[in-house]
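User: Hey, quick favor. My workstation is busy. Could you predict this chain's structure for me?
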Amino acid sequence: MSQGIKGKVVVITGASSGLGEATARLLIEHGAMVVLGARRIDRLKALAADLGGKALAVATDVTDRAQVQRLVDAALTAHGRVDVMVNNAGLMPLSLLERLKVDEWDRMVDVNIKGVLYGIAAALPVMQRQKSGHIINVSSVAGHVLMPGGAVYCATKFAVRALSEGLRIEVKPYGIRTTIISPGAVDTELPATITDPDSATSINSFYEQVAIPADSFARAVAFAMSQPDDVDINEIVFRPTSQTL
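Assistant: No problem, here it is.
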């Protein structure tokens, strides 16, 4: 598994918990050098310390392009290159459209779509100069199917898939690989972003029944990274075995 991972410089957004944290832990175990970005700097520093000083923590709000650029620049300063960009930060405040939670719609667009775009904008020029790199964008099963209360969230995750496919087509001359990872119900803090009581009750019950550990996602990242340079794993969709949606 360490083949294709050891020695690579990996930048991860949304790294203070859940999918990002699990990915950082697994990749460091296999010899990667990891640069962690998230808003909660205290948790990020605690994680970096727990990882034995093998990770760099950088306070990053992905809705601020300058902060995402600073995250990638920190990786360059520390390691001289960026091999993998994992655009993982995301929110899932589900609610029916008729509830008119427009502020939450705006926030999902800012984090789930623009945050990914800012990650691409920061990492792509570096990888073009290197003539190598790997951009991994996190979509969701909700980027493939719709669910009640999920119209806006699903739309953002469909958008991630469209952006990623456009990126894949454009970066071929530079030897850059692209991967979309679409998880189903994974045990993270994502349901905690739901403020609508009905949606929260439904999703929390669903997650309690079927959610699988976050290291399932980390293994998907590792699988995509560990392929030979001439193999480009473009999309991975995975769910708990018991998930029907």
